[in-house]
Predict the structure.
Amino acid sequence: MDLVIRSVFAFVLIFSLTRIVGRRELSSMEPFDLILLVVIGDLVQQGVTQNDESVTGASLVLGTIALLTAGLAYVNFRFPSLRPALEGRPVVLVEHGQVIGANARRERVTLEEIEAEARLQQIESLERVRLGVLETNGRISFVPEDDVR
């Protein structure tokens, strides 16, 4: 039972940390970030199992994490009012060609990152953007201004 309790604690801790770190940082991982994620996973595993190398211990930990993940997905689906807390909300970064500085600062997104993402989506200037939104998955989506007025 101790392994299950430690697995639940590790799950809640990792979920909380990913919410605190921010979606933009998680969507743009560099190679070092990926290696760091693997190292963190190994450290969490050691903390959860306390060097319990039994098949039963590993099964309990994996089963607990899988059940928590499935349970969280079900709660997210079943209770829409909890989605903002579980997934976050989309944040408007650009409106009618103007960057909303307060939102960009709060999400720790630079003007250069917004412009680079716009270029990747074939938008040459932010002046041509009606709406730029940081989505809950960390990507920035753009709605271009209508050329016909």
Remarks:
- The first helix runs from residue 2 to 21.
